[in-house]
Amino acid sequence: MFVDAWQYLLLHRAQFATAFGVHVTISASALLLAAAIAIPAGVFAARKAGAALAAINIANIGRTLPSLAVLALVLPLLGTGFAPSLVALTLLALPPILTHTIAGLQGVEADVVDAARGMGMTPSQVLRQIETPLAIPVVFAGLRTAAVQVVSGAVLAAFIGGGGLGDFITAGIAMMAMPQLLVGAIPVTLLSLSTDYLFGTLERRLTPRGIR
Amino acid sequence: MITLRGLTKRFAADAAPAVDALTLAIGAGEICVLIGPSGCGKTTTMRMVNRMIEPDAGTIEVGGRDVTHVDAVTLRRSIGYVIQQVGLFPHLTIAENVATVPRLLGWDEARIDARVDFLLALVRMDPATMRDRFPRELSGGQKQRIGVARALAADPPVMLMDEPFGAIDPITRGSLQDEFLRILRELGKTIVFVTHDIDEAIRMGTRIAIMRAGRLVQYDTPEAILAHPADAFVAEFVGTDRALKRLSLATVAAVATTSPPPPGAPRVASDANLRDALSLLLAADVDAAGVVDAAGGVIGTLTLAALRRSLRSDPAAAESR
Lengths: 212, 321
Description:
The complex is a heterodimer. By secondary structure, chain A is mainly alpha-helical. Chain A has helices at about 1-10, 15-45, 50-65, 65-80, 80-105, 110-120, 125-155, 165-175, 180-205.
């Protein structure tokens, strides 16, 4: 069966390369977009207890939605193709990044921030020099969760015409063609694992030595 | 050096003020201890001096300058700040922690390095081995040494210290109190020191401000407060053993006579405090002890009667000890 899958892959090299490229592009774009929204929102929300609580609750509701449901909800609004898939995957990545950013900043000890302010750091110096380095491990844990979710969730983009490795899987299921299915499934699994590994390594590298 | 006038702070519009029209003048080189029960406004008062809390009314002068409306960030860089939990930055080395304010002020690296080494040595931490360590590698007492070194970094004339020894075990606390007292006096800093521990206040303070419900109840030298508590609240606050506490403030040399001691009398060092000397007389069940100098030579006599007289004497006179 794996030999059949290999042969299928060799026969459809160009198609595979395109699908792989789309998969990585859509995942990376969704993650970047989500980070660009959720990190600043988290920094803002972490300043106010009420806003933080509301943001975490909304994010947790968002997290309970199945990935497929998010895609299905986007479909009637934005139609099919790359853009709606990107939107759906971005929505999928927002909650873990948002909650981890808030948790990371709130986890910085109040005394440390008090000392920094009391010695005459401006609010932006406190954020850049104290809170950011101390919150980074937690924020990266959120990015890691989001990245893995997006890479595996991007498989579902095939349902709304977003392309990617999910194309092989959905077609494989529809035609009961096991080799074709594996050409989608195995690379997605490897991609998820390596994403997890990559972000895990980044998380350790970016954690300041004093708190490692 | 620091003058507070009519300082008032309310945390909620309908609540009683946390600090209520407080007026207090602290001279240069004084260690002014703010003390009182929880919620008396002592920490709020201290935090208004560097505008970590903005007052609702009143003025704050530091070094003759009204700082009520100057830029709070600039003001804070000119005032040392030490808190109970120290608040060292865990991701920065000891040297980087100490260098915080000089960096903010834009000192060059060579000057910062020299200053860090000087300060580490001042708080008895070996610069060579300590510079590159991280806060998590330090004990509680060592952390607060670094906390004080960091607060002294830009040589501020004024220091604010909020229960700096509160989280430190009693044995280390005693030696740190003595050591910091020596350092801060040598450097001639003016200090606002918050505590809830009356023994610490008596030990550290040149003046004690006793607060209750946001108001100043009594502001005087430790000796005067122990001798003449302003009211029943202060008397109770300083404790029923206030006579003993007063004795602990004076040394044997201050009340000893030069007459020779009776034969067989126990010996007491001339620089021992009177409380310990009293304990010695009571334990030995005698009325007099021989006073000896550092070299061990007998130089006079301490009697129970002299101890009693010292408590009757005017605290202003005793101050000149």
